[in-house]
Structure formats: structure tokens, C-alpha cells
């Protein structure tokens, strides 16, 4: 659940529940293949906030982002209500949430992501033994006038399938956002902005501009930083979201 800063004293949320704006879609779509084969460049983590926010640039090539946007346009996205439930941040966007362990595993194992995140020099960041990505996949589209107000991301208990047909109990520790558009594609605004001291301050903000094909990972749960998705003023902001999971 995304918690509104105004609903509690400063500090990250303790809740481990997840809310949705519409019933979870159970039928997995036929995702486009990863063409060209990934990775297309040497992947590397670039820290933006020590131990809390990192990016991986050129995760998806621009051509693949275009293929995915074309595909995602045909999915049944629903617009979130402008008035949130009590204790939740204001979010206005078009979204779809679905369980798809197969696609989550493809993102993890067939893109170079697994190798870069499990390298010895960064493995300490994730909070435990990483078992893969959250099968819960979320698609977000922000059009002009849409935004996500300041909030925290919760940590959740999930079940992650293994390659042997069994499942492992896991917990999410980092949010993973894959940006499919940027200003180069006509999307103006939509920056993800972090506030290190749990208060909105222009002087302290860390604004991450969109880059087509870039991954943004940020720590959530008890150590989540207050953050927001700024209003899109032109074009469309497309995002695929999942979470990094550790054995629990």
C-alpha cells in the first residue's frame, strides 16, 4: 500500500498489506519477446542515494520500449479514483495489476539483471538472500495532469516460484521501476522525487528524471524514503513495476 505522509507521523509505514484499485487480473498476457537479446550493454548499478536508491541505465533498448508500449496499450488499464481511501496518498493514473511469475522470472533471469544485482560488491544492499522478483506485476500510465502524491512503499510477504516447480516464501525489500518513456519520447514531467528527511523540501529533494529503458530501484518498507511521482504535463509516462524479493 502507498501511504500518505499526512496519515501518520513522519517515518516509513509499518503496514504489510497491498491494495488494488480493481480486481487483480489473473490471465497472464503474451508479453513481447526480448528482441534484441538482453542485455544490449554492460549493466551497472549507479547509486543516487547511498544504500537506498540506485539506477541501471539502458536496461531496455529504445526499440524494445516502443514494442512494449504498443503491447501495453491493448491491456485493460483502469483509471484510479481521484479521491483516495483514508490514509492513502492521492494517485491519479491508469494502471493494471496482474500475477505473472513467468514474466517476473524472465525479467530476472533473461536480462542480465540477476547477474548485476547478485554481484558481491552490491549483494549486501538487498537485505538478505535474493530469490527473484515479485510475481505481482503492475503497469502504470500517467497522462497529462496525472501524478502520484508523496508516499511510502510498503514491504510485503509474497511467494516466489522456483525453477524446480516449488515455491519459496519471500519478502519484498526494494521497489523496481522500469521506465519505458522519457522527454525524448515527448513525456514532460513525471520525475520520481525523493525527500531524504521525510519532509517535502525543494532544497533537499532528489529528483530522478525519466530515461527510456532505465531501471530505478529504491529501498522500501521501514527504510523507505518519502517520494512522489510528479505530474506529467505532456505526453505519456509508461512504467512497469515489480519488487526485489529476499528469502523469508
Automatic annotation (TrEMBL):
Start and end residues of each stretch annotated as Disordered: 1-31
Signal peptide, first to last residue: none
Stored InterPro entries: Oxoglu/Fe-dep_dioxygenase_dom (IPR005123), P4HA-like (IPR045054), Pro_4_hyd_alph (IPR006620), Pro_4_hyd_alph_FE2OG_OXY (IPR044862)
Keyword Oxidoreductase: yes
KW Oxidoreductase (keyword) present: yes
Chain intervals with Low complexity compositional bias: 14-29
One Pfam family from the record: 2OG-FeII_Oxy_3
Cofactor: L-ascorbate
Listed name of the protein: Fe2OG dioxygenase domain-containing protein
Taxonomic source organism: Chaetomium strumarium
